[in-house]
Amino acid sequence: MHRKNRLANVRGMIKRMASGLVLAVSLAGWAQAADLPARAPGLWRSSTSVTGPDGQTVARDVVTLTCIDPATDQAFLLSGQSRCSKLNISGAGADYKINGTCAQPGGTVTIDETLHYASHKDVQLKADVHDAAGEMSLTSALQWQGLCLPGMQPGDEGREVNGAFVKTGNINDPQS
Question: What are the backbone angles phi and psi of residue 132, rounded to the nearest 5°?
Answer without folding.
Answer: -60, -25
